[in-house]
């Protein structure tokens, strides 16, 4: 898939609804931070050296052909329009940080968009693998083999004692951040979400909203990720995440079952209302959309409603974000026009 | 006052932003303020790891007596010879400047690692090429343990095998070191 196709389609590898435990786990992400030994970290780089870093990675990417890791394509951030850049953020393929000072930055994508490499973000390379459902081990294996192939060409900043050196000491060592996007409407409805999440954070995992650090959880979507990167192996970190995730999944499922058994009419009403509003509303804010998508998703997982293909809700989540609406309508939209456009798009997709 | 973004609802949220000493005030309605905040990540209060971390490091830098003169003398702290990052800047931004900073500020970073990670030693993946030596050292350490255990169990034949393997690896390590010098 070329970059132009990537920014035109909401669909991505992680939105397909495949993967294990996909009734609770929307997606699994693993990223590692790597730096080149011969350059200062990105925030200390001159424009000229930043370009040299991009060149070095570009060379390494070209050397990956025929290495069994698929086709990688690099795009300078400056080659994209502001809307296209924002779409990459909305598709979770890059972080918002890559938009700042974008001329010195680049992104590498593979053909199914499961792997992306950000260049000159906080570290020279941020490799990430994003897959649907609970697939952290698979994501790490894919990422690690790409990392190995790139390392044949690139000299990484690595220290015997401290491991991979990173701009921020919170990433030093393995440089790994594994995270899961979880849909937890059941726990939210039975008012147990804060209890569960505070337990998770006591175990050394961070809990965040959908769009990363400092964002609020909308549509009952939560991100959990590891904090410790030094002193444990990558496999141990991932195994720890998976075992915590399994417990959250189990409690979310039992909350849903209890709700379905004891408050069936309420649940059916809730899902039916969401369906009705989404199919007929003329103005929908992004916040309302996320809330209704959550109800719809819950309805599908509880078999209250079965008309919706599994990937459609996730795709709609992306399609109804501001930059995507802008791209599709081909002109600037005021917030009000956006809400109208959003409602129209949802009606069409659910028809 | 109407919201300056949607120009529809009354402005109830007044946001003040200071970037590079330039003060900017925005008058927004609640829905717009919320949207604005999710779109502009930099706008949220910077209560993130970087700042907490910088605080941790800064704590060690701060002179407990707080005397002006002494404060001044240590204000920039040590400076990394390679990238020019000063301790003070690290304390402000929470980011190191280059790989060399880790050895330059090593002693002071140690407690920071312990606080964040509860550990100060990497045990994970080692890069194939750049970390070749580390890989061998790790192997040698593992074999030395096995050797000790074998001796304790009085399995001397096995112990001899381990000893030979260690010798072999040490030779390889020595060879690589020489190669580096040349």
From TrEMBL, chain A:
Ranges for domain Phosphagen kinase C-terminal: 24-255
EC number assigned by the record: 2.7.14.1
Keywords noted in UniProt: Allosteric enzyme, ATP-binding, Kinase, Nucleotide-binding, Transferase
GO MF annotation list: ATP binding; creatine kinase activity; protein arginine kinase activity
Chain segments annotated as coiled-coil in the UniProt record: none
UniProt record similarity statement: Belongs to the ATP:guanido phosphotransferase family.
Protein name: Protein-arginine kinase
Record organism: Desulfocucumis palustris
From TrEMBL, chain B:
SUPFAM superfamilies attached to this UniProt entry: C-terminal UvrC-binding domain of UvrB (SSF46600)
GO MF term list: cadmium ion binding; cobalt ion binding; copper ion binding; zinc ion binding
Coiled-coil parts of chain: 133-179
GO biological process: stress response to cadmium ion; stress response to copper ion
InterPro entries listed in its UniProt record: UVR_dom, UVR_dom_sf, YacH
Domain UVR residues, every copy: 137-172
Keyword Protein biosynthesis among UniProt keywords: no
PROSITE patterns: UVR
Domain of life: Bacteria
Keyword list, A-Z: Coiled coil
Name the record gives this protein: Nucleotide excision repair protein, with UvrB/UvrC motif
């Amino acid at each position: 898939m070329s970059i132009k196709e990537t920014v035109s389609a909401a669909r991505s590898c992680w939105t397909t609804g495949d993967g294990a435990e996909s009734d609770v786990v929307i997606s699994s992400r693993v990223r590692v931070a790597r730096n080149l030994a011969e350059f200062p970290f990105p925030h200390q780089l001159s424009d000229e050296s930043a370009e040299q870093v991009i060149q070095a990675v570009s060379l390494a990417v070209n050397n990956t052909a025929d290495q069994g890791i698929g086709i990688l394509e690099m795009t300078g951030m400056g080659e994209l329009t502001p809307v296209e850049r924002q779409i990459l953020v909305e598709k979770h393929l890059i972080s918002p940080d890559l938009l700042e000072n974008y001329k010195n930055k680049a992104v590498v994508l593979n053909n199914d968009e499961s792997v992306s490499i950000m260049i000159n973000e906080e570290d020279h390379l941020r490799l990430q693998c994003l897959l649907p459902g609970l697939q952290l081990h698979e994501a790490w294996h894919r990422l690690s083999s790409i990392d190995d192939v790139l390392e044949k060409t690139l000299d990484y900043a690595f220290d015997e004692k401290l491991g991979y050196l990173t701009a921020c000491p919170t990433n030093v060592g393995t440089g790994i951040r594994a995270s899961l996007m979880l849909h937890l409407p059941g726990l939210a409805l039975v008012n147990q979400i804060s209890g569960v999440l505070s337990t998770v954070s006591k175990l050394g995992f961070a809990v965040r909203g959908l769009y990363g650090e400092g964002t609020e959880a909308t549509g009952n979507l939560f991100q959990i990720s590891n904090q410790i990167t030094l002193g444990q192996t990558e496999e141990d970190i991932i195994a720890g995440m998976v075992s915590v995730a399994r417990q959250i999944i189990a409690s979310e499922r039992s909350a849903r079952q209890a709700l379905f058994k004891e408050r069936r009419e309420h649940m059916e009403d809730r899902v039916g209302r969401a369906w009705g509003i989404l199919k007929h509303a003329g103005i929908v804010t992004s916040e309302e959309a996320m809330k209704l998508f959550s109800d719809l998703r819950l309805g599908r997982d509880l078999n209250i409603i079965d008309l919706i293909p599994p990937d459609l809700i996730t795709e709609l989540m992306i399609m109804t974000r501001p930059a995507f609406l802008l791209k599709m309508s081909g002109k600037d939209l005021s917030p009000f026009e956006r809400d109208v456009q959003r409602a129209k798009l949802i009606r069409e997709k659910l028809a | 006052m109407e919201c300056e973004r949607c120009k529809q609802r009354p402005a109830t949220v007044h946001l003040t932003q200071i970037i590079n000493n330039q003060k900017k005030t925005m008058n927004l309605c609640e829905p717009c303020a919320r949207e604005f905040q999710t779109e502009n990540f930099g706008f949220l209060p910077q209560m993130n790891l970087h700042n907490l971390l910088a605080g941790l490091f800064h704590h060690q830098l701060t002179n407990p007596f707080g005397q002006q003169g002494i404060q001044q003398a240590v204000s920039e702290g040590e400076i990394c010879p390679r990238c020019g990052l000063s301790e003070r800047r690290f304390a402000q931004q929470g980011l190191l400047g280059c790989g060399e900073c880790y050895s330059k500020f090593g002693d002071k970073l140690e407690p920071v690692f312990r606080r964040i990670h509860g550990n100060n030693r990497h045990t994970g993946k080692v890069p194939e090429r750049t970390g070749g030596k580390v890989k061998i050292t790790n192997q040698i350490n593992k074999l030395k343990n096995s050797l000790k255990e074998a001796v304790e169990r009085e399995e001397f034949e096995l112990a001899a095998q381990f000893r030979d393997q260690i010798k072999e690896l040490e030779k390889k390590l020595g060879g690589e070191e020489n190669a580096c010098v040349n």
